[in-house]
Design goal:
Elements: H1 2-7, H2 12-21, H3 23-33, H4 41-51, H5 62-79, H6 81-85, H7 89-112, H8 117-136, H9 144-166, H10 173-210, H11 216-227, H12 230-241, H13 244-247, H14 249-275, H15 283-307, H16 314-345, H17 349-376, H18 382-410
Helix pairs in contact: 2-3, 5-7, 5-12, 7-8, 7-9, 8-9, 9-18, 10-12, 10-15, 10-18, 14-15, 14-16, 15-16, 15-18, 16-17, 17-18
Length: 414
């Protein structure tokens, strides 16, 4: 769409038609190219129009709202399938929890972005293949490959959601960063909805208890389970139709948490030296260490995605740079611990999966850190860091596909 915007800059009617066909994508693409268009009366007009934030909540078109309500209904029915069809809950939810939400959100963006039938068929084919494959794995009590496949299938479905989100702009780094920003905004709005839901549930259960009815089990099994899938669907709809709701909250959170995480990580590494614990001989400690690594990396990526959309002070860039350096140290420790355990006790599915993930993360972090140092030295812009992250996302997708579909076959479903 970016090329179409530039090509029709002198055609107000065509720009209006493009805007009405997909308002969110048009806004995202136009604001990305606006810095190069400043001074043009029409471009300035569209910038003011798109930057205007109404105090009213926009509920979108009736057709879009109907689709969201249908998606919420379908999600609730899928979540209730174990009760409806007498399926083992542990088996169903451990393998299919991703299919309760991700395909519905993917379908929403595919419809909204008017994806071609070929791409829709590709997304649907991969989703169906994942559904059939994960439910065909042997039902054994202890299978590391099955657990890994279940976990990484969530990431495969998340990647398909990103594919639908960027639509026809899959090679556009701004669109990919927009997907990361969407995830951050969704976390914020979903958390608020969940808090409101908890308050409502507490009041409802309390009121019924007062008049002698204990509805806790009924409420959880029929209201909570059915309603939970609607939360991210509603959150997505709100963030897409009202970006101003959390548009200013997410950057603030990124700015606050980046220096706090940097401080925490520094203190933690120093404390680890004196604690007597290490990830080389303590498996549980290594797992926590890797969870910490993934969490900090997510904060870096989200912060960069936010930074790429606005000018940042040198202090903020330095915080991100130092945080990246500290995360590389954490990653290097974790990677050396994994290699040590493989050398001592051999290769297992878990060790191989963690090894591959840490190698990819380290490569990505090194690339990001180099770019950040170039930004600090005024040799590049912050948008170059965002492009580095955006270009690496497909690599993570390929790895998750390998772990999900290939690992169980290589390791004999162990």
């Amino acid at each position: 769409m970016k090329d179409k915007i530039l090509g029709n800059l002198n055609d107000p009617g065509q720009l209006e038609r493009m805007y009405r066909s997909n308002k969110m994508q048009f806004k995202r693409e136009f604001l990305a190219v606006y810095p190069d268009l400043k001074g043009s009366p029409l471009a300035d007009y569209w910038h003011e129009r798109l930057s205007y934030e109404s105090d009213e909540i926009n509920w979108g078109s009736g057709r879009e709202l109907l689709m969201v309500l249908l998606a919420a209904l379908v999600g609730g029915l899928i979540a209730k399938l174990p009760a409806i069809l007498s399926i083992n809950e542990e088996f169903f939810y451990s393998r299919n929890i991703g299919f309760i939400i991700f395909p519905l959100l993917t379908a929403y963006f595919a419809w909204k972005n008017k994806m071609s039938m070929g791409k829709i068929a590709l997304v649907a084919g991969v989703s169906i293949a994942g559904l059939v494959f994960i439910n065909s794995l042997p039902d054994v009590n202890k299978s590391d490959t099955t657990v890994l496949s279940c976990i990484h299938l969530l990431l495969v479905l998340w990647s398909l959601l990103g594919f639908a989100f960027v639509g026809e702009n899959r090679n556009n780094s701004d669109a990919r960063l927009g997907f990361l920003k969407y995830n951050g905004d969704l976390v914020v709005i979903t958390t608020l909805i969940v808090i409101a839901g908890i308050i409502l549930s507490g009041i409802t259960i309390g009121l019924f208890t007062i008049i002698g009815y204990d509805i806790r089990e009924f409420y959880f099994m029929n209201i909570v389970i059915f309603g939970l899938p609607a939360v991210p669907i509603l959150g997505t709809y709100l963030t897409q139709t009202n970006p101003q709701l959390v548009g200013k909250v997410s950057p603030v959170i990124a700015r606050i948490f980046s220096p706090l995480v940097l401080f925490m990580l520094t203190v933690y590494l120093v404390a680890m030296i004196f604690s007597g614990k290490d990830p080389y001989n303590d498996r549980e400690f290594l797992l926590v260490f890797n969870a910490l690594l993934i969490g900090v990396m997510a904060i870096i990526f989200f912060s960069v995605a936010e930074s790429s959309r606005s000018a940042k002070s040198n202090l903020e860039i330095w915080v991100l740079t130092l945080l990246s350096v500290m995360t590389i140290i954490v990653n290097s420790i974790a990677l050396s611990a994994i290699l040590f355990r493989i050398a001592e006790w051999g290769i297992t599915p878990n060790r191989m999966a963690v090894l591959g993930s840490n190698v990819l993360i380290l490569a990505n972090l090194l690339w990001v850190t180099i770019r950040l140092f170039r930004v600090v030295s005024k040799k590049a812009g912050i948008n170059e860091v965002g492009k580095t992250i955006a270009y690496f996302l497909p690599v993570y997708f390929i790895w998750t596909v390998i772990v999900t579909f290939v690992f169980p076959l290589i390791f004999g479903f162990k």
